[in-house]
């Protein structure tokens, strides 16, 4: 199950939509329609704007990764949100999500003031006709309580250290060593491990040391959804409108500015010389300490890509983020290399999901 999904609601919605739909565990949605044209994410409760944005962004990733999906639909109860607020959040996404992806998303929900279908089109109305009775049955006994807790930044720093250790094939870390590397307290590390154990991502050795059971995909996909909040990206475009990421990377290699490490495709190629991608879509950097101050000293053609008033915004040629991993960057051929978790998140942001999966396998096989 994902997030706040409860089996009774999800199963009820699935049956209401036909019963022959294929359940899709391990994806960014709960099940797919029998004809494969629709995918659905079912939430027992969405309490606020942040939860709604996360759910829609997850569905957006699923839709972008599968061109055969005609519609990715969020079906949910909104006990503390009205229809106007839901529609406001939908409109806010228009400046964030690509139009080609947003046009394939939809919401069918039961808000605090009644049924809500966004956008208001025939396809979603037909789905609403089928599932709203199921939502109303579930809402009748829904207890309004405190919001479900979301993982904190500290949770993800512990996760990053544990993942890095797993990829390197290190011996299992004692909890106090894990806390020290994650730069957090022992109770904080223990709480993060408990959450991952509940998800089936961590088990304990006979020496009571935590070890991953495999690649912890649920926590990773949460990091993908929360990435803009966790790593605070800042994008830069090329004023000349003739972006050349390869030339920019070479310039960075010559300048070697302090406080920066490589992420994204450049780091992936350093980790795996056989990384499967032609060209460099952009340069991803990690701001590793306060020694780095200004980006415009790297290349005078760079401009802040978030500047308002751009009628035709260019794709970023460079993105700078705070690293999620608290560990020191590894030596690289020109610039230090960011940790695996940061490299993988960058690849997901570039929609290079297959390459990211292959990179994990190869890094773990090499113990790098």
Summarize the structure.
The protein has 13 helices and 13 strands.
Write up this protein.
- The chain has 368 residues and is α+β, with helices and mostly antiparallel strands.
- It is built from 13 helices and 13 strands.
- The strands form three sheets. The chain has a six-stranded mixed β-sheet with strand order 1-2-3-4-5-6, sandwiched between helices.
- Strand 5 (105-111) and strand 6 form a beta hairpin.
Rg on CA atoms, Å: 22 Å
- How many domains? The number is 3
With strands numbered from the N-terminus, the spatial order across the biggest sheet is 1-2-3-4-5-6
Runs in which pLDDT lies below 50 for 5 or more consecutive residues are: 1-8, 19-26, 141-148, 307-312
Sheet with most strands: 6 strands, mixed
The H-and-E topology, N to C, reads as HEEEHEHHEEHHHHEEHEHEHEEEHH
Shape: globular
Per DSSP, what share of the residues sits in E-state strands of 2 or more residues? Answer: 15-25%
N/C terminus separation: 32 Å
Please identify the structural class as seen in this structure: alpha+beta
Topology:
Blueprint: H1 7-16, E1 22-23, E2 31-32, E3 38-43, H2 49-65, E4 71-78, H3 83-93, H4 99-102, E5 105-111, E6 114-118, H5 122-140, H6 153-167, H7 175-182, H8 186-198, E7 202-204, E8 210-212, H9 217-231, E9 234-238, H10 245-255, E10 260-262, H11 264-271, E11 283-287, E12 302-304, E13 318-321, H12 340-349, H13 353-366
Parallel strand pairs: 3-4, 4-5, 11-13
Antiparallel strand pairs: 1-2, 2-3, 5-6, 7-8, 9-12, 9-13, 10-11
Helix pairs in contact: 1-5, 2-9, 6-7, 6-8, 7-8, 9-12, 11-12, 12-13
């Amino acid at each position: 199950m994902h997030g706040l999904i409860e089996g009774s609601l999800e199963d009820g919605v699935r049956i209401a939509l036909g019963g022959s739909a294929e359940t899709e565990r391990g994806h960014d949605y709960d099940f797919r329609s029998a004809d494969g044209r629709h995918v659905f994410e079912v939430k027992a409760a969405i309490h606020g704007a942040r939860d709604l944005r996360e759910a829609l962004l997850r569905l957006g990733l699923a839709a972008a990764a599968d061109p055969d999906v005609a519609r990715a639909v969020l079906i949910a109860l909104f006990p503390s949100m009205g229809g106007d607020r839901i529609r406001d959040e939908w409109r806010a996404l228009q400046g964030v999500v690509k139009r080609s992806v947003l046009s394939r998303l939809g919401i069918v929900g039961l808000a605090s003031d009644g049924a809500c279908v966004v956008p208001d089109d025939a396809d979603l109305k037909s789905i609403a006709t089928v599932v709203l009775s199921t939502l109303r049955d579930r809402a009748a006994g829904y207890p309004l309580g405190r919001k479900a807790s979301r993982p904190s930044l500290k949770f993800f720093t512990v996760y990053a250290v544990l993942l890095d250790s797993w990829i390197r094939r290190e011996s299992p870390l004692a909890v106090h060593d894990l806390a020290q590397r994650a730069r957090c307290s022992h109770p904080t590390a223990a709480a993060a491990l408990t959450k991952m154990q509940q998800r089936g991502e961590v088990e304990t050795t006979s020496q009571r040391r935590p070890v991953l059971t495999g690649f912890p995909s649920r926590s990773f996909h949460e990091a993908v959804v929360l990435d803009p909040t966790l790593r605070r990206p800042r994008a830069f475009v090329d004023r000349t409108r003739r972006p050349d990421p390869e030339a920019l990377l070479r310039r960075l290699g010559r300048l070697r500015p302090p406080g920066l490490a490589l992420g994204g495709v450049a780091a992936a190629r350093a980790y795996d010389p056989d990384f499967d991608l032609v060209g460099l879509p952009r340069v991803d950097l990690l701001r590793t300490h306060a020694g780095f101050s200004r980006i415009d000293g790297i290349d005078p053609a760079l401009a802040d890509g978030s500047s308002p008033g751009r009628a035709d915004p260019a794709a970023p040629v460079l993105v700078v983020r705070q690293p999620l991993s608290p560990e020191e960057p590894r030596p690289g051929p020109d610039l230090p290399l960011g940790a695996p978790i940061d490299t993988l998140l960058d690849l997901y942001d570039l929609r290079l999901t297959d390459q990211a999966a292959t990179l994990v396998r190869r890094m773990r096989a090499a113990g790098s």
